[in-house]
Write a structure and sequence with these properties.
137 residues; mainly alpha; 6 helices
Length: 137
């Protein structure tokens, strides 16, 4: 006896995405509604949780400055972990922007080099890096 779930090919092609959404979409919605911390939460849920891309970018830059050895990679990974303890990701992102913009010429560069609030954020990053150097290198 042959059983057909969907009467026609057109109905089947329209029903499959809905079926997939029903079967696979529901657990994801329920998992995100849980009150406990979930490892799939976005980085914005924990301000000290840096995205992997930013951590890797920091480690690659650190290794370029300190040598491309396995031990250096471990020290650099430790370093970004210590920085994440001191600075939220939002602050780290702002400081990275300030550092990149300080090299600009003209009025824009002067703004990023002289603004008091930006200098305070840079000082916080330098303190976090100093602590990371003491703990990791």
């Amino acid at each position: 006896m042959k059983r057909t779930m969907f009467p026609s090919g057109a109905a089947r092609s329209a029903a499959l995405p809905l079926l997939a959404l029903f079967l696979f979409g529901s657990p994801l919605v329920l998992a995100n509604d849980s009150p406990k911390g979930n490892p799939t939460d976005s980085p914005k849920s924990n301000p000290t949780d840096y995205p992997t891309e930013s951590r890797v970018d920091y480690v690659i830059g650190c290794m370029a400055a300190n040598g491309n050895a396995y031990l250096t990679m471990q020290k650099c990974a430790c370093s970004i972990d210590v920085i994440a303890e001191h600075l939220s990701y939002e602050t780290y992102e702002q400081v990275a922007t300030v550092l990149s913009m300080q090299d600009q010429r003209g009025e824009l560069g002067v703004l990023f080099r002289t603004e008091r609030g930006m200098q305070d954020q840079l000082r916080a990053l330098h303190q976090a890096q100093a602590d990371a150097n003491l703990r990791c290198f």
